[in-house]
Amino acid sequence: MTATIDPTTDLYPTRLSQPGAVIDREHPTVWGSPEDGPFDAAALKAHEERGFTILEDFITPDEVEGYTAELNRLAADPAVRDDHRTVTEKVSGEVRSVFEVQKISEKLDALSRDPRLLDRARQLLGSDVYLHQTRINFMPGFKGTGFYWHSDFETWHAEDGMPIPRAVSCSIALTRNYPFNGGLMVMPGSHRSFIQCVGETPENNHASSLKEQKIGVPTEDDITRMAGQLGVDQFTGPAGSALWFDSNIMHGSGNNITPFPRSNIFMVFNSVENTLTEPYGAPAPRPEHIANRDFTPLR
Ligand code: 6CS
Ligand code: FE
């Protein structure tokens, strides 16, 4: 495996005009070794096979309280509500996500460099890493809406020009994830296949896709087949749990009609050997608060 990627070669074509195919992923999920960081050999093997890892007690209850206070402070700040990096719910108008939080909150900037995150991200990706995307997500009780099935890498490749799936996401739960309050569902092992999606990317797709993704989603046949072969798992657990998941895993979430809200901190690490180029399947790159182009390694 060479570290150099020729960005002119599109190894994962998508947003096609005609029905596509399933591409076997040729790139590894885990690029590092047990001696490179906190995950032991068994944990790395499981991550390579399933495409995700759940770590309970990733942060302490005191830290959960501190970050929750920070999220509430941000959500209540009129400047944040009006900020172009804030996405609101399509129907209720409530704050749904705030992007590029490391630039808005010193506390979250520090978290992105915390060895608990950084050492794991570097180990999984086998190199220095930088932040591709960060956000805090709020899913209110009763009215929270989910996301249809998708692979993040499909979007990051097509719309952001990420060459290969050498990125990993860390989602830290600040509330308990029950099986019934809109928690993330994943198909274990789905990260090994790249599902080509049909439909050209419209201009300014991100203006709507972050509320409801309609482009870059697999067909119902694809989902039926994958779910039949692989099954569906869910990220459940107490506040303070972390989910590490591969950029190409098939995932989605349902609406939250329970009274129990859900919020999390979401950080995407990309390898410095996989920096963004021109989009592979979109008319123009997305804004940098969604797809960061400052590739300075985190220290
Ligand atoms: O657009 C993004 O970067 C993320 N959001 C959505 C709705 N899909 C792809 C990815 O998870
Ligand atoms: Fe996603």
UniProtKB/TrEMBL annotation:
Reaction equation(s) it catalyzes: L-ectoine + 2-oxoglutarate + O2 = 5-hydroxyectoine + succinate + CO2
Region (Disordered): 279-299
Record-linked InterPro entries: EctD, Phytyl_CoA_dOase-like
Stored NCBIfam families: ectoine_ThpD
Cofactor(s) this protein requires: Fe(2+)
Keywords on record: Dioxygenase, Iron, Metal-binding, Oxidoreductase
The enzyme's E.C. designation: 1.14.11.55
Entry-linked Pfam families: PhyH (PF05721)
Protein name as catalogued: Ectoine hydroxylase
SUPFAM superfamilies in the cross-refs: Clavaminate synthase-like
GO molecular function: oxidoreductase activity
Functional summary from the UniProt entry: Involved in the biosynthesis of 5-hydroxyectoine, called compatible solute, which helps organisms to survive extreme osmotic stress by acting as a highly soluble organic osmolyte. Catalyzes the 2-oxoglutarate-dependent selective hydroxylation of L-ectoine to yield (4S,5S)-5-hydroxyectoine.
Organism listed in the record: Georgenia deserti
Subunit structure: Homodimer.
Family classification: Belongs to the PhyH family. EctD subfamily.
